[in-house]
Structures are given as C-alpha cells and as structure tokens.
Amino acid sequence: MFEGHLIPHASYNLLAAVICCVGLGLGATVLLRIRCEREWSLTIWTSYKINRVWQRLADESARTGGTLTSFVMGLLAWCLLGSAWSLSHVDETLSGLWLGMGYGSLVGLGTLFCRSAAALFGGWITLAFESTRRGLEIDRHMRNWLLWLLMILSILQLSQNIQFQGRELLWDQAILIWGIWLLLKWLRQVQSVLHNGLHFGWGIVYICTFEIGPTILLFKQFEAI
After folding, report:
1. Which long-range contacts (CB under 8 A, 24 or more apart) does 154-162 make?
2. Which among 157, 159, 162, 164 has the fewest CB atoms less than 10 Å away?
3. Residue 124 backbone phi and psi in degrees, to 5
C-alpha cells in the first residue's frame, strides 16, 4: 500500500500459479521426450501424420510410463486453464489466485473419468471397442498439444509484463485456443471413426453425446461463475 493505493502487482506475482503449471509442464515434456519415445512419437504424429498412428506396428504402441505421463500432462493443461480462469476473477489482493489450479485439476480428473466411461459405454453400444479405444488415444495425444499451446501463450503473456488491468486477456486467449483445439480434436475423432469402419451415424451420435454436449455444458458453467 502506498499513499492509500495498492502497489501494482508484478507480472510474475499475477501469473504465479500459471508459472508453476508451466514449470511442471516443461518437466513432464522433457520426461516424455527422453523416457517415453513411443508416446512422444505418437503425440507428434497425431498433429500431422494421423495415418502413421493408425498404421503403427504392435511394438510402437505406447507403454504404461508414456501413457501415465500424457495423462499428467492432460491434467496440467486443465490446471493452466483453471489458473487463467482464477486470474480473471481475483481482486487486487490476489485472494484465491491458486484455487483455479485446484479446480482445474478436479475438472480434469472428472473429464478423464467421464471420457473413459463414455468410451466403454460407446464401445458396448456400437460393438466397436477398438474404435473407441483409438478415440481415447487421440484424445490423450491431443491434450499434450493443448498443454504446449497454453504454455506458449503463458510465456508470451509473462514476456509482455501483463498488468492487473489486463489479467482477463490470458483467460480470453486460453478459451480461444481451447475452442480451436476442440474443433481439431473432433475432426481427428471423425477421421478415426471413418478409418475404423464405424457407421458414420453412430460416430456422430457418439461425438455429439459424449464430446460436444458435455463441453458446451462445461463452458456454460465457467461463463456463469
């Protein structure tokens, strides 16, 4: 406090929770690259060479360590989104700045559980367990890309010395990236449906019911708070 006015917050204070997520994300990325070559390759191929993912050999499938690392990276992506959301809602005392990370991790865990349950149910309905399993793989690989995009956005915001008055910009841009990422992920899911020979109607119903519908509800909940 200076002459009755709060001292402006430094950029690294505003983005403390975001920086923590970025640091953890960098660590997980290094671990994925060094220790989980198969999962790393599948993640990279998902972005521009999806046929290579579908045509991989049996010994190119991801191992448990790579799968778990990707799950952690997916949770970190949600933590980053939650941190950006909390930053746009805090007051000048920065009370509750770190709560968004916790909320994001809970939403991420719930999302992962619901997607896994939806894949099992969808496989049971359509009798195409392989197709829904591949859909889960694509979702896992795409979440890694979401984390990387959000990390780049966060680093750019930090380099621009974000001020308290512009704290909502990070959340707005994060939502934009999330929306674009969702469209690309759904495109990959449709491609996977067609590749695996699943009836197109079942594929659209599955994506609308277990992907688009819950996403819209989740976004409305964020906007209502």
Report:
1. 154/15, 154/18, 154/19, 154/21, 154/22, 154/80, 154/84, 155/22, 157/11, 157/15, 157/18, 158/11, 158/12, 158/15, 158/18, 158/19, 160/11, 161/11, 162/11, 162/14, 162/15
2. 159
3. -70, -40
Is 86:100 a contact under the CB 8 Å cutoff? yes
Cα→Cα distances 121→74, 109, 213, Å: 22, 18, 16
Nearest CA to 145 out of 79, 67, 70, 52 is that of 70
Q: How far apart are CA 30 and CA 13, in angstroms?
A: 26
Full DSSP string of 84-133 = HHHHTT--TT-TTTTHHHHHHHHHHHHHHHHHHHHHHHHHHHHT-HHHHH
Note the maximum CA span of the chain.
Answer: 70
Q: CA 35, CA 12: separation in Å to the nearest integer? A: 31
Gap between the Cα atoms of 137 and 52, Å rounded: 13
| Cβ contacts of 68 within 8 Å, gap of 6 or more | none
pLDDT tens-place string over residues 75-121: 999 999 999 998 888 877 677 788 999 999 999 998 888 888 877 77
